[in-house]
Amino acid sequence: MTGLGYNLMLLFGGIFGALIIASVIGGVLSFHYAGEKHNATIDNLNARIRGWWMMCIVCVLAVVVGPVGSVILFAVMSFFALREFITLTPTRRSDHEALFWCFFCFIPVQYVLVGMEWYELFSVFIPVYVFLFLPARIAVVGDTTRFLERTAKIQWGMLVTVFAISHAPALLMLDIPEYQGQNIELLLFLMIVVQMSDVWQYVFGKLFGKRPIVPKLSPKKTVEGFIGGILASVLLGMSLYWVTPFSPWEAGLMSLAITLMGFIGGLCMSAIKRDSGVKDFGEIIEGHGGMLDRIDSLCFSAPIFFHLTRYFYT
Predict the structure, then answer these.
(1) CA-to-CA distance for 133 and 240, rounded, in angstroms?
(2) Whole-prediction pTM value?
(3) Which of 83, 96, 117, 165 is most buried (most C-beta within 10 Å)?
(4) Percent of the chain having pLDDT more than 90?
(5) Confidence of residue 249 (pLDDT cuts 50, 70, 90)
(6) For all residues of the chain together, what is the average pLDDT?
(7) Does residue 33 register a pLDDT over 80?
(8) Rounded to 5 degrees, what are φ and ψ at 181?
């Protein structure tokens, strides 16, 4: 077990303080507009707030347990995200054994490597060994129907929902001079900035959005929401520089990089959902859809943040 340091206490105090304020506002709005046409939107807002409460409490518990808790948390997230991805992009019965390897062998091994801080193998296990194993295992079964399509789906699912996401807890393995023992704060910085970017883009889009940024893909994402959300997230990242090894302007540049990648990740996942004709990947988190709906931005931002930090600060 590990205690919460002063910086972590401040971070969590700010997060839960914001949630309390949001809950009060949501309750007041729900009472004020009870029975009116706005109530569906307000109900959705309150469901999202309850979802955030659940996610933040789970996150605190993982931090209190220590690095092992964080690794296990992300392993579980990867499991459910891959399950949703495979469910939405159906495979054939002959792929089931390959999928068994993915869920019950490759996901645990990937996160054990993260927990062992074995960077050399963690960084190539899925993109090299698993990438080559999967088509070989599927080919041995002898089912050639849509072979390339089926194999590519499973490979892409593993790369995005497991390999990419595992870079988030992998931040705990970085040996940053004069920052030892504080890496959990770096992980929280990544998660807070990326998740708040999604929130800010939603808020600015609702308040000021007029021009869809990619109308055929995601008509609710607007230019105004994108610009406002990115700028607000960069300012948030700069204000949180004190929990990172970065200076304020470096924290701002890092925030810009990860929020841009998070936006691209959201667009790519939206493309998959639109192609499949569904609104959400699942319903595991109230008001937020599935696990992959919640971490789509993190899928693209975590690897970039990890490697930028590793290259410039270790």
Answers:
(1) 42
(2) 0.90
(3) 165
(4) 54
(5) very high
(6) 88
(7) no
(8) 80, 5
CA pair distance 173, 46, nearest whole angstrom: 37
One domain for residues 233 and 153 = no
Asked whether 156 and 163 are in contact (CB, 8 A), the reply is no
On whether both 189 and 160 belong to a single domain, the answer is no
Phi, psi torsion values for 221, nearest 5 degrees: -85, 125
Residue scoring higher pLDDT (12 or 298): 298
Q: Are residues 61 and 77 in the same domain?
A: no
Looking at the fold, whether 215 and 245 belong to one and the same domain comes out as yes
Q: Which two tokens stand for residue 296?
A: 């789509």
Q: What is the pLDDT of residues 201-223, one digit of tens each?
A: 888 888 888 888 888 887 778 99
Q: Which of 173, 200, 226 is the last residue of a domain?
A: 173
The token duo for 36 is 């009116």
What is the phi/psi pair of residue 213, to 5°? -85, -35
Which residue range forms the structural domain that includes residue 120?
A: 68-173
